[in-house]
């Protein structure tokens, strides 16, 4: 306790070259103004008495005192002079007068509004520099005597430690600056244009709606996503993880406050009769003790270790928040992609059925020509093989469709046996006409994975501060016990001050040697900070790559779809003409088989190209962040996410 008091007196009450005009703590019974007037009056009274005593002997010469002169020389002091009225008035005028304190003159912490020793300004210096603090010579002893006794009390000690805990050691996190690029892609983007009757254009700097999937204008898709957002288990787990992270932050904030425990302990005890003093016939060895007490413990956050820990936990909560956003975005994107895949499979199955029907009709035609002796058995067998091959491609497509619907049911948060009421086809989907192109400065704010990496970087920065604070002295008010004891329950309330007891204890601990454990922990935290910064940069670069790929592939999708559409049209016309020629006997069966195979491949390629265009459009919205920042179901004040 003496060490803490001495340290506080050294740090807190020795300002030098600092204009003191205010004080915010209640440090004396004469708060809010610490007045020097009683001490000044006492000095005046003593000097008046001294001068009056010396004035009575002013007519006589001072008696020589060789021993006193020698002692004064040794002490390097001047002999006391007589004090006349003029000299007395001159000395009184030199006594420092009280100047009222001005609260606006003290530096404060902008966040907490408390006195902040870290932000003292030395005249002629820069803000933030810490000056050696020393009171003027005229009143340094007065302040030390006035606060000396008061600083020994634990309440004043706790107030001082709280008041001067404005500094948080360690580096302060600075968010990353936008990347020094003006475009997402290295080459200028070309408008996808029109393909299969659907037109798309790029919209630079356009915002993304929170329900971006509604741009497909599909009521079944909208209803499925609404049900999935309500029932999906992965989303519920992410929400619970975010609530747990926020609760952990609030739990850590509790260490800013003292811990108060109440205890009531009644005991009944018998002591040995041989040790009772005095030993009388009425002395009884039984007694009851009723004890009730309050215990207060507090660890002042002098160097900001707890604040850095709260900062780190808050950053981890932000990580959970953005992981929730990533789960939300992944869920909606997977449902959109699943619906597109189901529509593609349904159309491929329909096209396969159409091809099988055409090949059966051709088989009947070849069979008639074979019966008429116009073609051989080889031609008939080749047509049967072509039909069987087309029929063979149908079961895998039907299996893939069933599995895709099971996946959509699982994404909606239900069991496969419950079924899926929605049905997806390309006829119920519309391709979004405008494609958002986010600015480079907005990408790092829109991508949940980049924001999560930034939050991890923030947490690593705070962990460095925690490691540094652990190497500094630790201050604790270990216990402040206040209670009452009595022999009976009734006396417990009426016995007065004689039943009251209290205990106060404090400590200051500094690690002298620990095998360099704390130092290595600090180095590990600093290495973790470098790792988090590198991971953030890697994540940001990967995000830009994803968006660039999604933008550039859309132009290729449109070109591929236009080519596939032309190929399918030409193959269908070729098949129609070849079939007529076969009926007239102008072509053989092998030529018909070749045209059939070409038509089958062209029609399936067209369907897949259309599905790829729809899917890559959804991938662009996903890569751009999905508009989560525009959602209305997020409580921005609490930051809980849901």
Cα shape = elongated
Mean of all residue-level pLDDT scores: 78
Trace the largest sheet across and list its strands: 3-4-6-7
Percent of residues in helices comes to 40-55%
Report the sheet with the most strands, covering strand number, pairing sense and barrel closure.
4 strands, antiparallel
**Total strand count, please?**
7
Distance between the termini: 48 Å
Structural class: alpha+beta
The sequence of SSEs as H and E is HHHHHHEEHHEEHHHEHHEHEHH
Strand percentage lies at 5-15%
Oligomer status: single chain
Low-confidence stretches: 1-40, 55-64, 73-165, 635-642
Output the number of helix runs. Answer: 16
Radius of gyration: 44 Å
Characterize the structure shown.
The chain is α+β, with helices and mostly antiparallel strands. Helices cover 53% and strands 10% of the residues. It is built from 16 helices and seven strands. It has helices at 2-12, 37-56, 66-74, 85-94, 140-148, 154-163, 219-231, 233-253, 305-371, 377-392, 394-411, 440-446, 448-470, 491-494, 517-584, 589-623; strands at residues 193-195, 198-204, 259-270, 286-298, 434-437, 474-486, 500-509. It has a four-stranded antiparallel β-sheet, with no helix packed on it. Strands 1-2-5 form a three-stranded mixed β-sheet, with helices on one face. Helix 9 (305-371) runs antiparallel to helix 11 and helix 13 packs antiparallel against helix 15. The model is unreliable at 1-40, 55-64, 73-165 and 635-642 (pLDDT under 50).
């Amino acid at each position: 306790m003496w060490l803490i008091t001495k340290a506080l007196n050294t740090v807190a009450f020795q300002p030098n070259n600092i204009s003191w005009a205010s004080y915010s703590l209640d440090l004396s019974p004469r708060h809010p103004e610490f007045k020097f007037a009683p001490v000044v009056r006492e000095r005046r009274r003593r000097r008046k008495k001294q001068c009056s005593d010396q004035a009575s002997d002013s007519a006589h010469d001072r008696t020589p005192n060789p021993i006193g002169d020698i002692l004064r020389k040794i002490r390097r002091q001047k002999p006391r002079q007589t004090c006349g009225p003029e000299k007395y008035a001159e000395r009184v005028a030199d006594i420092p007068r009280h100047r009222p304190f001005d609260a606006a003159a003290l530096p404060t912490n902008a966040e907490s509004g408390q006195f902040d020793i870290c932000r003292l300004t030395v005249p002629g210096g820069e803000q933030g520099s810490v000056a050696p603090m020393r009171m003027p010579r005229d009143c340094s002893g007065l302040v030390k005597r006035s606060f000396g006794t008061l600083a020994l009390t634990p309440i004043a000690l706790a107030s001082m430690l709280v008041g001067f805990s404005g500094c948080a050691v360690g580096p302060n996190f600075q968010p990353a600056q936008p990347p020094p690029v003006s475009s997402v892609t290295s080459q200028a983007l070309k408008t996808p244009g029109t393909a299969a009757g659907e037109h798309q254009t790029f919209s630079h700097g356009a915002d993304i709606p929170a329900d971006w999937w509604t741009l497909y204008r599909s009521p079944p898709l909208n209803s499925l996503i609404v049900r999935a957002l309500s029932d999906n288990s992965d989303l519920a787990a992410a929400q619970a993880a975010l609530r747990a992270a926020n609760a952990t932050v609030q739990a850590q904030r509790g260490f800013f406050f003292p811990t108060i425990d109440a205890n009531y302990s009644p005991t009944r005890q018998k002591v040995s009769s041989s040790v009772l003093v005095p030993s009388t016939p009425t002395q009884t060895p039984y007694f009851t003790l009723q004890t009730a007490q309050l215990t207060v413990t507090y660890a002042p956050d002098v160097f900001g270790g707890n604040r850095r820990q709260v900062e780190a936990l808050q950053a981890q909560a932000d990580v959970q928040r953005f992981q929730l956003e990533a789960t939300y975005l992944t869920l909606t994107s997977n449902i959109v992609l699943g619906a597109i895949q189901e529509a593609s499979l349904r159309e491929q199955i329909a096209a396969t059925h159409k091809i099988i029907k055409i090949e059966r009709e051709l088989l009947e035609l070849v069979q008639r020509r074979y019966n008429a002796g116009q073609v051989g058995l080889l031609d008939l067998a080749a047509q049967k093989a072509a039909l069987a091959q087309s029929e063979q491609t149908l079961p895998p497509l039907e299996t893939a469709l069933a599995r895709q619907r099971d996946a959509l049911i699982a994404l909606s948060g239900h069991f496969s046996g419950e079924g899926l009421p929605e049905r997806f086809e390309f006829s119920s989907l519309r391709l979004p006409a405008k494609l958002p192109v986010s600015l480079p400065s907005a990408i790092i704010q829109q991508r949940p994975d980049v924001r999560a990496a930034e939050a991890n970087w923030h947490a690593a920065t705070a962990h460095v501060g925690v490691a540094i604070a652990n190497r500094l002295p630790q201050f604790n008010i270990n216990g402040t016990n206040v209670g009452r004891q009595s022999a009976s329950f009734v006396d417990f309330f009426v016995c007065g001050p004689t039943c009251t007891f209290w205990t106060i204890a404090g400590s200051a601990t500094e690690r002298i040697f620990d095998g360099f454990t704390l130092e290595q922990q600090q180095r590990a935290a600093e290495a973790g900070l470098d790792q988090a910064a590198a991971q953030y940069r890697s994540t940001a670069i990967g995000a830009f790559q994803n968006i660039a790929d999604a933008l550039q592939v859309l132009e290729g999708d449109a070109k591929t779809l236009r080519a596939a559409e032309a190929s399918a049209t030409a193959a269908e016309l070729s098949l129609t003409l070849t079939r007529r020629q076969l009926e007239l006997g102008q072509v053989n069966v092998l030529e018909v088989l070749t045209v059939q195979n070409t038509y089958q491949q062209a029609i399936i390629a067209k369907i897949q190209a259309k599905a790829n265009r729809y899917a890559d459009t959804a991938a662009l919205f996903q890569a751009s962040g999905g508009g989560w920042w525009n959602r209305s179901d997020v409580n921005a004040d609490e930051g809980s996410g849901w």
